[in-house]
Amino acid sequence: MTALNNSFIVTNARIVLEDEIAEGYLIVDSGTIAEVGRGKDIPPGREDWSVVDGKGGLLLPGFIDIHVHGGFGGDFMNADRESYDLITSFHAKHGTTAMLATTMTASKEAIEAVLAAVAEYAKQDMAFTPLIGVHLEGPFISEKWPGAQNPAYIHDPQLPWLEQWCEQYPGLIKLLTLAPEKHGARETIAWLAGQGIIASAGHTDALYDEVIAAADAGLSHAVHTYNAMRGLHHRQPGTLGAVLTDDRIHAELIADGEHVHPAAIKLMLAAKPKDRVILITDAIEAAGMPDGDYELGGLAVTVKGGTARLTEGGALAGSSLTMIAAFRYMLDGGFGLSVGDVSRMASGNAARELGIFDRTGSIAAGKQADLVLLDDALQVTNTWVRGRLVFEAE
């Protein structure tokens, strides 16, 4: 029997808690986790509840993807409900229970269209993975490290734009990526921190000292660490050196075996506290789609063997990654991580940074039932958002 009315019991599961894996059952009452219990017996008085047999699989807190551009043919820059339904339904199938709609470096008008579309979408009954805010990736980035961003729209930080957007859409922007070395960046970072918006370094040529000064001003995040940033040299530690050594900075990681070499991942894990590493997909519209020609931020993209690159120049252009694939890669990649470690990187760490850990990001009584159930092969069989079943494998 499947879950009904946001109230159900998952039995026979290995439940991934903050500090242990408990073999037993989990009770969800009206979309909220009511109880985590040991053993196989259903508590008295609940015998007529809907029951989901976990079949010995892992029950995890749902994944939180704070850097995702699209999926299954949809792109957040399209700024329409059809695209957003495609994206959120696709990622729900892969265990994501919350995401930040991530923009590209584009015109002010195009970015404003996304803000308006996400604000409107969030007012509706989001049937799949909910959008909990927006991540502005650009346009205040470095011309030297555009990656797959469109250089035609790169600007110095424009604080009046941000003030306008935050006044018009209060609380919508959760994270903003910029190059800390740009003119006006430090003042912008301080303003963002004062607004409770995460200031992030990315697509940047910043020197080590510039990143440290930015962190002093309130910068606390780095997007797709290693990618599109000044690298590490033993006499000039660069952006990467600051990200790896300053524990104030959370480090995103695209764990797909393409964007970052396994040895570089090991270096990150040796340098950073585990609660400062955050798995993301950076997925584009090609995620879940066959190889072929696509678009990202107005630039042509070719996907071959699942790897997306700009058609001209060959720069990596986002990914076709899913959160469950990143979870499996980190667990099975020889990095010495436990299920709990990887779960926190895929969920709890982002929830803490976003300030929503009191309600999601881990499995505990009183929290939202944002859950993903995996089988023995670490494939997603069920995804729930606030206790509502948004995906069930056939």
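[next item in queue]
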Amino acid sequence: MKRILYTAIVISVIFASCNTAKFSLKERQLILKKYSEKIMPLMLVSNKPDSVILYTESTDFEVNSKDKKLKKLVDLMYHTCIDSTNPGVGIAAPQLGVNKRIIWVQRFDKTQKPFEVYFNIKIKKYSSSKSDGWEGCLSIPGYRGIVRRSDTIVINYDTFNKKNITETVSGFTAVIFQHETDHLNGILYTDRIFDKSKLYTDEEYHRIFKTKKGSD
């Protein structure tokens, strides 16, 4: 009886660990579709079914560099992010309908400002020093807002070659990491704006920005 119970526990643990590495059926269907220019449709907060995905917390998974679906998703995320008609400086998997902890971030703190992909990322520490800054979102087109973020953060993440890395990031790049990691936690930047009068249309933002530039 003990042996049977032990075997059942081992099988359930193995099954659970395998489950964490898999995409759901709906996610697999999304990834395997053919997309023009490798650009996937973005989830928009204005669309109710999309907003459910955007407000759902994403899960960790086992990174497998031989997983063709994962490699394709990573490629699609990148091309969707840099789409010249609506380019971004970062993107999170939930924005494409996949609730897995994957983000792309443009590293403005590195030479040539490269885009890099991060798996199972978490922010381990936030600095007490914070700054206000403008933010927008591919999933909330047409708006900009002023959000207060930590100036420095400590992040932990996995890489394609299964390395687990911890590093400290500061400045604008830290803001991007916080924005994209929020997506993985089911949080949008508009949820961070306590003063809703600080949410502006793109037209208002450009008018304010030009006014400020003119006064410098």
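[queue empty]
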